Amino acid sequence: MPKRRRSSTASISSKRPKFIDHVSLPSLTKVGKVLATGAGDFGQLGLGSDILEKSRPAVVPITHEIVDICAGGMHTVCLTKDGKVLTFGCNDEGALGRETADKEDAEFIPGEVNLPDRVKQVSAGDSHTVALLEDGRVFAWGTFRDSHGNMGLTLKGNEKLPYEILPHHIVIKIASGADHIVFLTQFGEVYTCGCPEQGQLGRTSERGSDRNCRTGFSKFLQPAIINVKPSLKLKFDNIWAGTYSTFAKVEQKNDIYVFGLNNYNQIGLKSQNAVFSPKLSKEFSKFKWNIICCAQHHTIALDEDGKTYAIGRKEYGRLGLGKDCDDATELTEIPFLKNKKVVNIACGSATSFAVLDVGELYGWGMGTVGQLGTGEEEDCYEPTLIKSKQLAGKHVFRVSSGGQHTIILASEANGNNNQPQPENEQLQDGDEGDSVSAGA
């Protein structure tokens, strides 16, 4: 009798021992209320179709117990305590992962995505969303875009419902840029897919990354391993994705390999040319990082001691280094936060945020549509405490910033997150000029 063939996953597992048992993922032990601020014209605030903009954080009416949040370009993703995914916002390209055409204002209301198992991590880009299941499978939906327009998520085009991506691999962490996805496998390998134009995939030449180079361009929609020299025998134990960049940490070392856009030194290399193959960043390798958040032209990073650093472009105050600062070509500790313990950070297109261990939220950078949550539309050049009636008595522990909106996760100071507020209190802050309705 001929031998039966093993499944692909079994074959992979039998040939090599598991490399990594644990990787640093967002803690899912604390439940919080979701608050939103900024632009809401596509429903990304989750406050209903009458709320087009908020200049201070307002509570999103969600009855589920939420443990994690992620702001995409014009949509928002929430992870519940029981491993379910809720989405709201722009669904033109399928970024919500659920049908919304058959129900009025469905994009403005948080709705559940149908997935086959519990989810332990979510990420989001400009027009895509990714979910990592507890068993190591990854599902994605939406699309990628490049300078020529829509690329599709797969060879079939846009995927408006969850699609299993990178099958036959056990993934332990995911990360999303604007239009690319990064995967870390249990064997310490880094896979990427999506738009390659700025070098963010780390597996193509500059010439081969342009869509006009038709030969093999579709391969970038299929996840593949990054181009690391085999002689280096590198394995990785952490990953982060920027808007147009990728960071990968070498196993049991501080070494950080980077690739992607570097026109303002935002990935820590001296040359400002885009980097298309993984290159050691001596600047980022100086520290032990807890979180690296890279936006379009700047990066905010949090080390294991709770210290926060900035590098990159200065405009709009996104670095938090003061109004008269220059572009930062080296990682610079943010002076205002030097004597404070930071536990979480985030950055949007031109915004930055820091959460302190005492539950306070600080923001800085561009404030044109209220995405900082200060109640004003002025830019902030140094970390500024974010206050609102809806935040009073709450302990912020996570923040995520998208294109022009920001999502906050905060627990009640008394530990009670399950008492729903009256609807008018959820949607109104009581602060003059805090919201703009559809009829305004």
Can you tell me about this structure?
- It holds the Pfam family WD40_RLD.
- This is Regulator of chromosome condensation isoform X1.
- Residues 416-425 have a biased composition (Low complexity).
- Residues 33-408 form the RCC1-like domain.
- GO terms for molecular function: guanyl-nucleotide exchange factor activity.
- By secondary structure, the chain is mostly beta strands.
- It has a single domain, classed as Methylamine Dehydrogenase, Chain H (7 Propeller), CATH 2.130.10.
- Helix content is 3%, strand content 40%.
- It has 2 helices and 31 strands.
- It has helices at residues 8-15, 423-427, and strands at 33-39, 51-59, 66-71, 75-80, 85-89, 111-113, 119-124, 128-133, 138-142, 144-146, 149-152, 159-165, 171-176, 180-185, 190-194, 224-225, 236-242, 245-250, 256-260, 275-280, 289-294, 298-303, 308-312, 328-333, 342-347, 351-356, 361-365, 380-385, 394-401, 405-412, 435-437.
- It has a 5-stranded antiparallel sheet with strand order 29-30-1-2-31. The chain has a 4-stranded antiparallel sheet with strand order 3-4-5-6, with no helix packed on it. A 4-stranded antiparallel sheet has the order 7-8-9-12, with no helix packed on it.
- β17 (236-242) and β18 (245-250) form a beta hairpin.
- The longest helix is centred in the first third of the chain and has 8 residues, at 8-15.
- It is globular, with a radius of gyration of 21 Å.
- The N and C termini lie far apart (76 Å).
- 54% of the residues are buried.
- The model is unreliable at 1-14 and 418-440 (pLDDT under 50).
